[in-house]
Design goal:
Helix content: 25-40%
Family: Belongs to the bacterial solute-binding protein 8 family.
CATH class of the largest domain: Alpha Beta
Number of helices: 9
CATH topology of the largest domain: Rossmann fold
Radius of gyration: 19 Å
Pfam families: Peripla_BP_2
Structural class: alpha/beta
CATH architecture of the largest domain: 3-Layer(aba) Sandwich
Protein name: Cobalamin-binding protein
Strand order of the largest sheet: 2-1-3-4
Distance between the termini: 20 Å
Number of domains: 2
CATH superfamily of the largest domain: Nitrogenase molybdenum iron protein domain
Order of helices and strands: EHEHEHEHHEEEHEEHEHEH
Shape: globular
Number of strands: 11
GO biological process, one term: cellular response to iron ion
Keywords: Signal
C-alpha cells in the first residue's frame, strides 16, 4: 500500500504500527523515525502541495485537523477529488482508537488491536500509581513563550499530568490551548514548569527567558524542565514515552525509571 502522511503525528502513528515502509511521502515537519528522512517532502503541514500528493498516486492519504489552519488541506484534497482519512486525536484514548483505525485501513487490524491494548495497559499502570500519590504538584506547561500559550482542560497534556502524579494548573480552562499572560501563571503558583515549545528543538529552548519575567521571584525558584516537544506536543503514540519520562522526573520513587526513547514501544 502507498501511504502519504500530511503531519508528523500521522507519520509517527505509522511507525508505531510498523508500516513505515509503506510511506511514499510526508510533510516537511515529519522528522521521525530515521527511515522516513529520505522520503519526498510535500510542504509544511499547514500548506501541503497537493499536486505533489496526487503525483505520488497514494492508496491512502492520512490527513489531520490537529492544528488550526489544516482545514485548508482538506479543502484542497476535496477540490482535487482525492480520497483521504482524517485522524484528529485530542486525547490518549483517541490515539488508542486511531491505532486500530489505521490497522483496519492497512489490513493490520490484529496487530493494531494488540498495540492499542498494550498502550492502554501502560496508561492503566500509571493511573493506578498516580491514584496512590497523595501530594500532587501543580505543573505549568508552556507551549509558546510570547504570547504565552499553555494546554487547557481538553488537552492530552492534562491527562499526562494526571497520569504522572501531577495536575495541570490550567485544567480549569475548558480549552485545548489557552492564550494567557505571565501574571496569570504566577498567580496560579505552579510547583514545576515544563517548557515544550512547539516546533523548537530542545537545545534552542532557553529557560533563562522565564527567569527574566516580572514576578519570577514569587515562584521561589520553581524548577524548570526543558522537555522534547516531539514527546509532548504531537498527538502520537510517542506521548507514552513523554509520560514515562515526566513521571520519572516528578516522582522517581513511585514510577519506573526513564531509560530513554524506548524503541520497544514500536514493536
Amino acid at each position: 500500500m502507498r501511504i502519504v502522511s500530511l503531519c508528523p503525528s500521522n507519520t509517527e502513528l505509522c511507525a508505531f504500527l510498523g508500516i513505515t515502509d509503506q510511506l511514499v511521502g510526508v510533510d516537511d515537519f515529519s522528522d521521525w523515525p530515521e527511515q522516513i528522512k529520505s522520503l519526498p517532502r510535500l510542504g509544511p503541514d499547514l500548506s501541503i502541495d497537493m499536486n505533489k500528493v496526487a503525483e505520488l498516486n497514494p492508496d491512502l492519504i492520512l490527513a489531520s485537523l490537529s492544528v488550526p489552519g489544516m482545514e485548508k488541506n482538506i479543502e484542497a484534497l476535496d477540490r482535487l477529488g482525492l480520497s483521504y482519512t482524517v485522524l484528529n486525536p485530542n486525547s490518549l484514548d483517541d490515539i488508542c482508537n486511531d491505532i486500530v483505525t489505521l490497522g483496519e485501513l492497512t489490513n493490520k487490524r490484529e496487530e493494531a488491536t494488540s498495540l492499542s491494548q498494550r498502550f492502554r495497559n501502560v496508561l492503566k499502570e500509571y493511573k493506578d500509581i498516580s491514584e496512590s500519590i497523595e501530594n500532587k504538584p501543580e505543573i505549568y506547561w508552556e507551549w509558546w513563550p510570547k504570547p504565552i500559550f499553555t494546554p487547557g482542560q481538553t488537552n492530552w497534556l492534562t491527562e499526562i499530568s494526571e497520569l504522572a502524579g501531577a495536575k495541570n494548573c490550567f485544567r480549569d480552562v475548558e480549552l485545548a490551548s489557552v492564550q494567557t499572560d505571565w501574571n496569570d501563571v504566577v498567580n496560579r503558583k505552579p510547583d514545576h514548569i515544563c517548557l515544550a515549545w512547539v516546533g523548537v528543538r530542545k537545545n534552542k529552548v532557553n529557560p533563562a527567558i522565564v527567569k527574566k519575567r516580572e514576578g519570577w521571584e514569587k515562584l521561589n525558584d520553581c524548577p524548570i524542565h526543558v522537555l522534547e516537544e516531539w514527546l509532548y506536543c504531537r498527538p502520537s503514540p510517542r506521548l507514552l514515552t513523554g509520560l514515562i519520562k515526566l513521571a520519572a522526573i516528578l516522582h522517581p520513587n513511585h514510577y519506573p525509571t526513564y531509560e530513554g526513547e524506548d524503541s520497544s514501544l514500536l514493536t
